[in-house]
Design a protein that fits this description.
The chain is an alpha/beta fold and 192 residues long. The chain contains five helices and five strands.
Length: 192
């Protein structure tokens, strides 16, 4: 049996008890055995500054190398002001530079947004999708995933998804993503 696909999970919230972090942990628990999801920390990345490209901070180099090693990318994000949080945007900027050397290129990706609000972070989800097009991330289009109305009752303390509707949505999403990765990686794309 082949080893599981290594999936780098970028969580757009830094809060220790973040619903997005809990959703990422829940996805890892629900994922088929052919996937191995690991949250890649983005909170300690120095702000992107092009002047540092010639001698990048070690945190940038480590992050870029970790993303390059991954077979795929999973973005789990809240919505801040109808967009993604600054920490996630910074991680995208760090990983995509220097120009022409993006760590994200050709990595099969997916986006899920999580929010206590009714719309489930719809604006952030779609804003992030726009960035992924430019990053040359072949992004899973369906099923779209907006997990709205989350609360402390949605997730258990150990990362289990307690809410049946949320569990069903997350399971459907992660199973479709596992299939998406195989579809994309079976037909390798040439870099531009």
């Amino acid at each position: 049996m082949a080893p599981p696909r290594d999936i780098a999970v970028l969580v757009g919230s830094l809060r220790r008890e973040s619903f997005n972090r809990k959703a990422a942990l829940g996805l890892a628990r629900l994922a088929p055995e052919r996937l191995s999801l690991a949250i890649v920390g983005i909170g300690a990345l120095p702000l992107y500054d092009q002047d540092l490209d010639d001698d990048p901070p070690a945190a940038w180099t480590d992050f870029r190398e970790r993303v390059r090693r991954a077979d795929g990318l999973l973005f789990v994000t809240p919505e801040y002001n109808r967009s993604v949080p600054g920490v996630l945007k910074n991680a995208i900027d760090v990983g995509s530079r220097p120009y022409g050397k993006s760590a994200f290129a050709n990595k099969p990706g997916a986006v899920i947004s999580v929010s206590p609000g009714r719309y489930g972070g719809f604006g952030a989800n779609h804003h992030l999708r726009q960035s992924c097009v430019f990053l040359d991330i072949p992004l899973m289009q369906q099923p779209e995933a907006y997990l709205g109305g989350v609360s402390d009752a949605t997730f258990g303390p150990d990362g289990a998804v307690e809410d049946a509707a949320a569990r069903k949505l997350l399971k459907r999403f992660i199973d479709a993503y596992a299939d998406w990765i195989e579809t994309i990686l079976r037909e390798p794309r040439q870099p531009h």
